[in-house]
Amino acid sequence: MRINKYIASCGVASRRKAEELILNKKVKVNGRIIEELSFQVDEKRDIVEVDGERISLDEKEVYILLNKPEGYITTVKDQFDRPNVIDLLSGVSERVYPVGRLDYETSGLLLLTNDGDLTFKLTHPKHEIDKTYIAMVKGELTSDEIQNFKSGLYIEDYKTAPAKLRVLYYDKNKDISKLEIKIHEGKNRQVRKMCKAINHPVLRLKRVAMGKITLNDCKVGEYRHLTEAEVNYLKSI
Ligand code: URA
Q: What's the 22 CA to ligand 1 centre distance in angstroms?
């Protein structure tokens, strides 16, 4: 690949700016300053430095928010060959991975990135970010059940941390309740297990926010790139 294209592909500078960097002798390949604008980089072997910093093709970090539909898996592959969220990212050439997971049947906000540091940070139990869910559950909750849910309860042998719960409404005809739930942990199927523990199984579940990041008007099955402010916010958590 031509050197200026390589530098641009690494997300370091535009192709024009990359040429300026070369002419200003700021670019080295395998320790040697490059002066020819037509220099060809071997992407697999060459070590390229700009201003003394090593750059590489996978340096360009992308941050994507997908409104996941129900019926998609977020793990790499499964034995049933079910649709994968990655199938919904046409136009994204970088290899991105989900930040945490959403169940096959859960819809809503899913972040995907190739920034491993951020993924590690956001999913680390020490500073897991608040996640907001809208759940349709069976039945009407009593105040004891609500209190139980909020103060933390046992799912299997694990005691959940205090959570937030707001009943948005109870539909008497259908005997279902719509809840807003906020948790900061990320145990497998945690919201479903917590609702089941108070005898109100989840009928439908959607994640609508992670911290201050919301779906906005991103439609089901569509994705958008996070804004710079959103990325900075996530990095600052
Ligand atoms: N809790 C669940 O039960 N399922 C999800 O997909 C996310 C949180």
A: 50
pTM, two decimals, is 0.78
Find, among 62, 63, 65, the residue nearest to 221 by Cα.
65
Q: Which atom of ligand 1 is nearest to the CA of 189?
A: 3
Known catalytic residue at 103: yes
Q: In the chain, what are the helix, strand and coil shares in percent, each to the nearest 5? A: 25, 30, 45
Same CATH topology for 3-55 and 63-125+213-236: the answer is: no
Q: Kindly state if the Cβ of 206 falls inside 6 Å of ligand 1.
A: no
Encoding tokens for residue 10? 């690494």
Token digits of residue 59: 């340096």
Kindly state the average pLDDT of the residues 100-116: 93
What are the pLDDT digits (tens) for 54-87? 888 866 789 999 999 999 999 866 778 899 999 9
Residue bearing the CA closest to ligand 1, atom 7: 102
Instruction: Give the active site residue among 103, 144, 171, 175.
Output: 103
Q: Which CATH class is domain 63-125+213-236?
A: alpha beta
Closest ligand 1 atom, residue 105 Cα? 6
Residue 183 C-alpha to ligand 1 middle, in angstroms? 10
Alpha-helical regions (H) of 87-171: 116-123, 143-151
Fold of the domain built from segment(s) 130-210: Alpha-Beta Plaits (3.30.70)
